[in-house]
Amino acid sequence: MDSLKIDLPGYISMNIVYTALAIIIVYILRSLILRIIHRNMKDLKLYYKTRRTINYIYFGVVLLLLISIWSETSSMSTYLGLASAGIAIALSDLLVNIAAFVFMIFKKPFSVGDRIEINGHAGDVIDQRLFQFTVMEIGNWVSNDQSTGRMIHIPNRLIFNHPLFNYNAGFKFIWHEVHVMLTFESNHNKAKEMFLNIAGKYTVQKTDTLEKELKEASRKYLIYYNNLTPIVYTDVKDSGIVLSIRYLCEPQKRRTTHEKVWEDILDITNREEDINLAYNTMRFVSEQVK
User: Fold this and answer.
1) CATH of the domain at 193
2) N or C, fewer C-beta in 10 Å, the chain?
């Protein structure tokens, strides 16, 4: 039994040194490989995917080295078990982030390039890592889903606790609406027909590719549309008649198509005398005293 006893403080000290050396050496090798690849690879998307793969290999190699360093003797099993339990409690958030990362790799609730919204933050995913993913923010003080230029680093664990909205998963297009209020005196039937023509100019055209994507999405999700063509709905508000122009567009082109639709609407209202935009007004009716 005495032969199995080890100098615990000395054992831990040496293993800490070995651990530090292993991490430093593997990190230097990883950095050199990435530098060489970045210098010779022109395709940025391919470089990003290659860098992610190398990072996975890097973490795997480090993990294997740590296991080999810290599991040399069976007498350390109890100590390591207690230490692991303490570490698990202290680093619970980090472990949940890792579990969420594994979930994202296999279930793919979103991919790099998708536009998502989670916990009140929306943006285009530009990076996924072991503990967090990064989005290029849209919205906030900028209207119509335009980029703010800020990057948001979001912990992976939030995908377990908050609803995740994906603009691109399944069917890769979204429905957008432009609401136009006309005066009660306007020829709304004529306006409705002209607005429908405008929507037809900027909607995603019905092609074989569109039908194929919708069919492909329906295999995984219960997604189906009887009608993919644009439409104009009519409603009445206190200040006038509201025509809602509804059409399909790509998520990243919502602002562009929104602007073009409004430019055509303004051209129509400036040109047609019987189609006028409404605004909040107050009317007074007085009775003539005889």
Assistant:
1) 3.30.70.100
2) C
3-state DSSP assignment of residue 275: coil
| H or E, element range at 81 | helix 77-90
CB 244 within 8 A of CB 179: yes
Other beta carbons within 10 angstroms of residue 165's beta carbon come to 12
- This prediction has a pTM of 0.61
State pLDDT tens for residues 124-134.
Answer: 999 888 889 99
Name, in order, each residue with C-beta under 8 angstroms of 209's C-beta and a sequence gap of 6 or more: none
Task: Tell me, yes or no, whether 187 and 262 share the same domain.
Answer: yes
- What are the C-alpha distances in Å from 252 to residues 42, 50, 167, 257? 25, 26, 9, 10
Contact at 8 Å (CB) between 28 and 99? no
Residue at which a domain ends, from 64, 90, 116: 90
Cβ atoms of 105 and 164 closer than 8 Å = no
The 3-class SS string of 143-207 reads CCCCEEEEEEEEECCHHHHCCEEECCCCCCCEEEEEEEEECCCCCHHHHHHHHHHHHHHHCCCCC
Residue 278 lies in a domain: no
Residue 126 lies in a domain: yes
Number of domains in the chain: 3
Whether residues 125 and 151 fall in one domain:
yes
- Bridge partner list, 135: 125, 152
Stretch 138-157: mean pLDDT: 85
Residues 262 and 180 in one domain: yes
Contacts of 123 (CB under 8 A, 6+ apart): 115, 116, 117, 135, 136, 137, 138, 147, 152
Q: Which of 46, 50, 7 is nearest to 30 (CA)?
A: 50
Closest CA to 147 of 157, 136, 160, 158: 136
Q: Which residues form the domain of 72?
A: 2-90
Residues 204 and 135 in one domain: no
Per residue in 17-74, pLDDT (tens digit) is 777 888 888 888 888 888 888 888 777 777 777 877 887 787 778 777 777 776 655 4
